[in-house]
Amino acid sequence: MATQIRIAQDEAADAVLSSDPFALLVGMLLDQQYPMEHAFRGPSKILERFGTLSPQAIAEAEPEAFADLCSTPPAIHRYGRSMAGRVQQLAVVVRDEYGGRAETIWQDAEDARDLLARLRALPGFGDQKARIFAALVGKQLDVRPAGWQEAVGPYAEDGSYRSVADVVDAESLAKVREFKQAAKAELKAKAAAAKAKA
User: Fold this and answer.
1) What pTM value is reported for the model?
2) Which residues contact 44 (CB under 8 A, 6 or more apart)?
3) What NCBIfam families does the record tag this protein with (predicted)?
Protein backbone atom coordinates (compact mmCIF):
# COMPACT_ATOMS: atom_id res chain seq x y z
CA MET A 1 0.00 0.00 0.00
CA ALA A 2 1.88 3.05 -1.23
CA THR A 3 -1.08 5.30 -0.47
CA GLN A 4 -0.74 7.61 2.51
CA ILE A 5 -3.74 7.17 4.79
CA ARG A 6 -4.40 10.16 7.05
CA ILE A 7 -7.49 9.10 8.98
CA ALA A 8 -5.88 8.99 12.44
CA GLN A 9 -4.43 12.50 12.08
CA ASP A 10 -1.32 11.23 13.85
CA GLU A 11 1.85 10.60 11.86
CA ALA A 12 2.87 7.32 13.50
CA ALA A 13 -0.67 5.89 13.57
CA ASP A 14 -1.30 6.89 9.94
CA ALA A 15 1.99 5.28 8.89
CA VAL A 16 0.78 2.00 10.43
CA LEU A 17 -2.58 2.28 8.61
CA SER A 18 -0.79 3.04 5.34
CA SER A 19 1.60 0.10 5.55
CA ASP A 20 -0.51 -2.66 7.11
CA PRO A 21 -3.85 -3.76 5.57
CA PHE A 22 -4.87 -5.56 8.78
CA ALA A 23 -4.35 -2.30 10.71
CA LEU A 24 -6.80 -0.56 8.37
CA LEU A 25 -9.36 -3.32 8.93
CA VAL A 26 -8.92 -3.11 12.72
CA GLY A 27 -9.32 0.68 12.60
CA MET A 28 -12.63 0.23 10.78
CA LEU A 29 -13.73 -2.37 13.33
CA LEU A 30 -13.03 0.08 16.18
CA ASP A 31 -14.88 2.93 14.45
CA GLN A 32 -18.13 2.80 16.41
CA GLN A 33 -19.32 4.79 19.41
CA TYR A 34 -15.89 6.42 19.42
CA PRO A 35 -14.36 9.39 17.51
CA MET A 36 -13.12 8.03 14.18
CA GLU A 37 -9.58 9.41 14.37
CA HIS A 38 -9.14 7.80 17.81
CA ALA A 39 -10.52 4.50 16.54
CA PHE A 40 -7.98 4.46 13.73
CA ARG A 41 -5.17 5.13 16.22
CA GLY A 42 -6.02 1.81 17.90
CA PRO A 43 -3.92 -0.41 15.60
CA SER A 44 -0.82 1.69 16.31
CA LYS A 45 -1.37 1.28 20.08
CA ILE A 46 -1.71 -2.50 19.64
CA LEU A 47 1.50 -2.62 17.58
CA GLU A 48 3.37 -0.55 20.14
CA ARG A 49 2.27 -2.69 23.09
CA PHE A 50 1.99 -6.14 21.52
CA GLY A 51 4.96 -5.80 19.17
CA THR A 52 3.18 -7.02 16.04
CA LEU A 53 -0.09 -6.77 14.11
CA SER A 54 0.25 -10.29 12.75
CA PRO A 55 -3.28 -11.75 12.62
CA GLN A 56 -1.86 -15.14 13.66
CA ALA A 57 -0.07 -13.74 16.72
CA ILE A 58 -3.15 -11.71 17.76
CA ALA A 59 -5.46 -14.69 17.24
CA GLU A 60 -3.23 -16.85 19.44
CA ALA A 61 -2.70 -14.25 22.19
CA GLU A 62 -3.99 -15.08 25.67
CA PRO A 63 -7.37 -13.27 25.74
CA GLU A 64 -7.10 -11.74 29.24
CA ALA A 65 -3.57 -10.48 28.65
CA PHE A 66 -4.56 -9.07 25.24
CA ALA A 67 -7.61 -7.35 26.77
CA ASP A 68 -5.38 -5.82 29.48
CA LEU A 69 -3.04 -4.49 26.82
CA CYS A 70 -5.91 -3.00 24.79
CA SER A 71 -7.69 -1.40 27.75
CA THR A 72 -4.62 0.18 29.37
CA PRO A 73 -4.93 3.99 29.05
CA PRO A 74 -4.84 5.37 26.48
CA ALA A 75 -7.09 2.45 25.53
CA ILE A 76 -7.79 1.39 21.94
CA HIS A 77 -11.48 2.21 22.45
CA ARG A 78 -14.00 3.44 25.00
CA TYR A 79 -14.85 -0.26 25.46
CA GLY A 80 -11.27 -1.51 25.34
CA ARG A 81 -11.76 -4.99 26.77
CA SER A 82 -14.74 -6.01 24.64
CA MET A 83 -13.11 -4.52 21.53
CA ALA A 84 -9.95 -6.53 22.26
CA GLY A 85 -12.11 -9.65 21.92
CA ARG A 86 -13.52 -8.38 18.61
CA VAL A 87 -10.00 -7.68 17.31
CA GLN A 88 -9.01 -11.26 18.20
CA GLN A 89 -12.13 -12.65 16.46
CA LEU A 90 -11.25 -10.61 13.37
CA ALA A 91 -7.66 -11.89 13.50
CA VAL A 92 -8.92 -15.50 13.61
CA VAL A 93 -11.02 -14.96 10.45
CA VAL A 94 -8.14 -13.27 8.60
CA ARG A 95 -5.76 -16.05 9.66
CA ASP A 96 -8.09 -18.96 8.88
CA GLU A 97 -9.95 -17.74 5.82
CA TYR A 98 -7.49 -15.38 4.15
CA GLY A 99 -4.11 -16.92 4.97
CA GLY A 100 -3.26 -14.10 7.36
CA ARG A 101 -3.42 -11.50 4.58
CA ALA A 102 -6.20 -8.96 5.19
CA GLU A 103 -5.76 -7.33 1.76
CA THR A 104 -6.91 -10.60 0.14
CA ILE A 105 -10.43 -9.70 1.31
CA TRP A 106 -10.63 -6.79 -1.14
CA GLN A 107 -7.94 -7.59 -3.68
CA ASP A 108 -9.34 -11.01 -4.57
CA ALA A 109 -13.05 -10.15 -4.53
CA GLU A 110 -14.73 -11.18 -7.80
CA ASP A 111 -16.93 -8.08 -7.86
CA ALA A 112 -18.42 -5.52 -5.49
CA ARG A 113 -21.16 -7.88 -4.35
CA ASP A 114 -18.53 -10.46 -3.39
CA LEU A 115 -16.50 -7.77 -1.60
CA LEU A 116 -19.50 -6.66 0.48
CA ALA A 117 -20.37 -10.28 1.29
CA ARG A 118 -16.79 -10.88 2.50
CA LEU A 119 -16.85 -7.72 4.63
CA ARG A 120 -20.31 -8.39 6.10
CA ALA A 121 -19.10 -11.84 7.19
CA LEU A 122 -16.36 -10.29 9.36
CA PRO A 123 -16.93 -10.01 13.14
CA GLY A 124 -18.23 -6.54 14.00
CA PHE A 125 -19.01 -5.57 10.39
CA GLY A 126 -22.66 -4.91 9.63
CA ASP A 127 -24.02 -3.76 6.28
CA GLN A 128 -23.24 -0.07 6.75
CA LYS A 129 -19.70 -0.67 8.03
CA ALA A 130 -19.09 -3.03 5.09
CA ARG A 131 -20.20 -0.34 2.61
CA ILE A 132 -18.09 2.33 4.30
CA PHE A 133 -14.99 0.10 4.25
CA ALA A 134 -15.64 -0.79 0.59
CA ALA A 135 -15.85 2.97 -0.07
CA LEU A 136 -12.59 3.47 1.84
CA VAL A 137 -10.62 0.92 -0.20
CA GLY A 138 -12.23 2.27 -3.36
CA LYS A 139 -11.51 5.93 -2.73
CA GLN A 140 -8.16 5.69 -0.97
CA LEU A 141 -6.61 2.47 -2.33
CA ASP A 142 -8.29 2.58 -5.74
CA VAL A 143 -9.77 -0.91 -5.31
CA ARG A 144 -13.04 -0.69 -7.22
CA PRO A 145 -14.32 -4.09 -8.33
CA ALA A 146 -17.11 -4.30 -10.91
CA GLY A 147 -20.33 -2.74 -9.61
CA TRP A 148 -18.48 -0.88 -6.85
CA GLN A 149 -20.35 2.41 -7.15
CA GLU A 150 -23.79 0.80 -7.16
CA ALA A 151 -22.96 -1.55 -4.29
CA VAL A 152 -21.44 1.12 -2.08
CA GLY A 153 -24.21 3.65 -2.78
CA PRO A 154 -23.93 7.24 -1.50
CA TYR A 155 -20.59 6.47 0.20
CA ALA A 156 -19.04 6.16 -3.26
CA GLU A 157 -19.96 9.72 -4.29
CA ASP A 158 -17.04 11.93 -5.25
CA GLY A 159 -16.69 15.07 -3.20
CA SER A 160 -18.97 13.83 -0.44
CA TYR A 161 -18.04 13.93 3.23
CA ARG A 162 -20.21 11.10 4.52
CA SER A 163 -17.78 8.74 6.16
CA VAL A 164 -14.24 7.85 7.14
CA ALA A 165 -13.69 6.95 3.45
CA ASP A 166 -13.60 10.69 2.73
CA VAL A 167 -11.07 11.64 5.43
CA VAL A 168 -7.75 12.69 3.92
CA ASP A 169 -6.79 15.62 6.19
CA ALA A 170 -7.97 17.67 9.19
CA GLU A 171 -10.42 19.71 7.08
CA SER A 172 -12.17 16.67 5.58
CA LEU A 173 -12.30 15.06 9.04
CA ALA A 174 -14.16 18.13 10.34
CA LYS A 175 -16.57 18.02 7.36
CA VAL A 176 -17.32 14.33 7.89
CA ARG A 177 -17.95 15.01 11.59
CA GLU A 178 -20.36 17.84 10.66
CA PHE A 179 -22.20 15.54 8.24
CA LYS A 180 -22.54 12.81 10.89
CA GLN A 181 -23.82 15.28 13.49
CA ALA A 182 -26.38 16.69 11.04
CA ALA A 183 -27.54 13.17 10.11
CA LYS A 184 -27.87 12.28 13.81
CA ALA A 185 -29.87 15.46 14.51
CA GLU A 186 -32.17 14.71 11.56
CA LEU A 187 -32.83 11.18 12.86
CA LYS A 188 -33.60 12.57 16.32
CA ALA A 189 -36.02 15.12 14.86
CA LYS A 190 -37.79 12.42 12.80
CA ALA A 191 -38.09 10.17 15.86
CA ALA A 192 -39.52 13.06 17.93
CA ALA A 193 -42.01 13.90 15.16
CA ALA A 194 -43.11 10.25 14.92
CA LYS A 195 -43.53 10.11 18.71
CA ALA A 196 -45.62 13.29 18.69
CA LYS A 197 -47.91 11.82 16.01
CA ALA A 198 -48.41 8.55 17.89
Assistant:
1) 0.93
2) 8, 10, 12, 13, 16, 17, 23
3) HhH-GPD-type base excision DNA repair protein
